[in-house]
Design goal:
The complex is a heterodimer. Chain A is mainly alpha-helical. Helices cover 77% and strands 3% of the residues of chain A. In chain B, a hairpin with a 2-residue loop joins strand 4 and strand 5. The chains are: A mainly alpha, B alpha/beta. Chains A and B meet through helix 6 and helix 7 of A and helix 2, strand 6 and helix 3 of B.
Chain lengths: 270, 249
C-alpha cells in the first residue's frame, strides 16, 4: 500500500515534468519566431475543424473524423453483436464461419480494407430506377466499421467466456434454459466487462479515421495534404502538431475513462 | 438397505471418463426418501462427479441413473433436464451465487423466472428462508459484501426456494474459513432433521458421522464401502477405508 502511493506520487511528478518541458519548449519556440506560425495555425483552425473557412458549416475536417468514427462505431457495434452471437452459437458451422470472417478482418491492415472498399464498392448503383451513389465518406465508414466489428465480436466472446463456469453450472442446476442463462446471468456480468474494451476500441477507431484520407474524404489529413499544402514547410510542422494534439485530446480522456471502468470491474470476478 | 424400486435416487453401474481418464468405474448407489447420505474419500476419487451425474450436469458414458420418475441417462437434451432440476437442487463448493444480484434476488430469481411462481408469494418465501438460514437483515447485500459462510447459506436458501425433494451438497464447507463452517453445518443439520433427502460430498468426518444415515467411501472411481456411520468409522471392513480414515481422523 505504501509503495503504491509512492509510485503514484512519482508518476504524477513525471507527468508534471513532461507537461512543464512541453510548455517551456513552446514558450522558447514562440520567442524564436514560432508565434507567427501559431498565429497562422489559429487563423486556419476553423478550416481544420470543420472543413470550411470562416463559415461554421461542417464540410469536412476534424468534425468529419468524429462523424466517421461515431457512424462506424454504431455500425460496428451492431455488426459485431451479430458476429459475437454467431461466435457463441451452438451450431458448429455458423460458429466456424463467424470465426473465419472475424479472424480475417481482425488480421487485415485497416488501410488495405479501406483501399479495398474504394475499388470494391461501385461509385453508384442503379436500383429500381433510382441512382444511389456511394460517396467517399460512405466507403470510408464501411471500410472502418468492418475491422472494428470483428474486434468488437472478439471482445464480446472474451467477456462472455470470462464469466466463471460455476455460474453456468449453478444456473443450469436451478433449471434455467440456455437463452435464459445468457439473459439473466451471463450477459449482465459480461456487459460490464465489455464496456471498457468497447471504449478502447472506439478510441482506436477514432485514430484510424485518419487513414480514411485514402478514400479522398475531406477529413483533417486530406485537408492538410490538399488545401493547406501551399503553406510554408515550417508552418506545416505546426499544422501537423496541432492535428496530433486534436486526436490526443479527443482520445486520451476516453482511454482514461475506460481504464477506470476496467479497474472497477476487476473486483467482481468471482 | 432400501429396496431398489422404492428408492428416490438410483444409480447403477455408472461409468464416466474425461478424455482417457476414467473417473467413475461403475458406481451403484440407492438413496431413499428422507435419507442423508455422505460420500467421503480422497480427492480425485470422483465424488463431485457422482453428484453432477445425478442432476444431469455431466452426461454419463454407461449405466443407469434414476431420480424419482426421471430416467436421467435417457434424457438427451438440456431442455429435457429441466423438470429434473426442479426436483433436485445443488449447493456448490464455490457458492456460485449471481454476483450482480442481491442475496434476496438470488433466492427469488429461479422460482420466479423458472417456476413462474407469483413474485409476491416468492418474496415472502425468500424472506422466510433468509431468516431460516439466519441471515435476516442481509437481504439487500450483494454476494461480494458477504463472508464465505454467509454466501454459502444464501446458496442453501436459494436451493430451498425451489422447493426441491433432494439437495446435493458438493464440498460446501471446503472453501470456507474454519469459523464460518459451523453456521453452514448447523443449517444443513436442520435440513436433515426436517427430513430433506440430502446427498453430501464432504471432508467433515465428524459432521458426516453425526448427521448421516449412511456413509459411502469412494476410492478410484468405485464405492469401496457403504455402511451406517458408526460401523464405517469404528469398524471399517476394507483396508483402503482403514488407511484413509487413519489419515484424516
Amino acid at each position: 500500500m505504501l509503495t503504491d502511493t509512492r509510485y503514484q506520487r512519482r508518476k504524477r511528478l513525471a507527468l508534471l515534468a513532461i507537461l512543464g518541458a512541453a510548455i517551456a519548449w513552446i514558450a522558447f519556440d514562440a520567442l524564436l519566431g514560432g508565434s507567427a506560425e501559431w498565429a497562422r495555425v489559429i487563423s486556419r483552425l476553423p478550416l481544420l475543424l470543420t472543413g470550411s473557412g470562416p463559415a461554421w458549416s461542417i464540410q469536412g475536417g476534424f468534425a468529419f473524423n468524429v462523424l466517421m468514427g461515431m457512424l462506424s462505431m454504431a455500425i460496428a457495434t451492431l455488426l459485431g453483436l451479430l458476429m459475437g452471437i454467431a461466435l457463441l452459437a451452438r451450431n458448429a458451422w455458423l460458429r466456424r464461419g463467424a470465426f473465419m470472417i472475424m479472424n480475417f478482418l481482425r488480421n487485415s491492415p485497416w488501410i488495405v480494407l479501406l483501399f479495398a472498399m474504394l475499388y470494391l464498392l461501385p461509385h453508384r448503383v442503379e436500383l429500381f430506377g433510382t441512382t444511389l451513389s456511394f460517396s467517399p465518406f460512405f466507403k470510408a465508414v464501411v471500410g472502418l466499421s468492418l475491422p472494428t466489428a470483428a474486434n468488437f465480436a472478439e471482445i464480446i466472446r472474451g467477456a462472455v467466456g470470462s464469466v466463471h463456469s460455476g455460474q453456468w453450472e449453478s444456473a443450469r442446476s436451478l433449471g434455467y434454459g440456455t437463452a435464459q442463462i445468457y439473459r439473466q446471468v451471463i450477459l449482465p456480468q459480461a456487459l460490464r466487462r465489455m464496456i471498457p474494451g468497447w471504449m478502447n476500441l472506439y478510441a482506436l477507431l477514432m485514430i484510424a479515421t485518419a487513414l480514411a484520407t485514402v478514400t479522398g474524404v475531406q477529413e483533417v489529413v486530406t485537408l492538410l495534404r490538399t488545401t493547406l499544402a501551399m503553406e510554408s514547410e515550417t508552418a506545416l510542422v505546426y499544422f501537423y502538431l496541432t492535428v496530433l494534439l486534436m486526436f490526443f485530446l479527443y482520445c486520451y480522456p476516453i482511454a482514461l475513462l475506460a481504464r477506470r471502468l476496467e479497474n472497477r470491474t476487476k473486483g467482481d470476478a468471482i | 438397505m432400501t429396496a431398489r424400486n422404492q428408492s428416490l435416487i438410483e444409480l447403477d453401474g455408472i461409468r464416466k471418463s474425461f478424455g482417457g481418464n476414467e473417473v467413475l468405474k461403475g458406481i451403484s448407489l440407492n438413496v431413499a426418501k428422507g435419507e442423508a447420505v455422505c460420500i467421503i474419500g480422497p480427492s480425485g476419487s470422483g465424488k463431485s462427479t457422482i453428484l453432477r451425474c445425478i442432476n444431469g450436469l455431466i452426461p454419463i458414458d454407461e449405466g443407469f441413473v434414476r431420480v424419482g420418475k426421471h430416467r436421467v441417462h435417457e434424457i438427451r437434451h438440456e431442455r429435457g433436464m429441466r423438470p429434473l432440476r426442479r426436483q433436485v437442487a445443488m449447493v456448490f463448493q464455490q457458492y456460485n451465487l449471481f454476483p450482480h444480484r442481491t442475496a434476496l434476488e438470488n433466492v427469488m430469481m429461479a422460482p420466479v423466472q423458472v417456476l413462474k411462481h407469483d413474485p409476491g408469494e416468492v418474496r415472502e418465501r425468500a424472506i422466510a428462508l433468509m431468516a431460516k438460514v439466519r441471515l435476516a437483515g442481509k437481504e439487500s447485500s450483494y454476494p461480494g459484501e458477504l463472508s464465505g459462510g454467509q454466501q454459502q447459506r444464501v446458496a442453501i436458501a436459494r436451493a430451498l426456494a425451489m422447493q426441491p425433494e433432494i439437495i446435493l451438497f458438493d464440498e460446501v464447507t471446503a472453501a470456507l474459513d474454519p469459523e464460518t463452517v459451523k453456521d453452514v453445518l448447523t443449517t444443513i443439520r436442520e435440513l436433515v432433521e426436517e427430513g430433506m433427502t440430502c446427498l453430501l460430498v464432504t471432508h467433515e468426518m465428524r459432521f458426516a458421522r453425526e448427521v448421516a444415515d449412511r456413509v459411502c467411501f469412494t476410492d478410484h472411481g468405485l464405492i469401496v464401502e457403504s455402511a451406517p456411520p458408526a460401523a464405517l468409522f469404528d469398524t471399517p471392513q476394507d483396508p483402503r477405508t482403514r488407511e484413509f480414515l487413519s489419515q484424516v481422523l
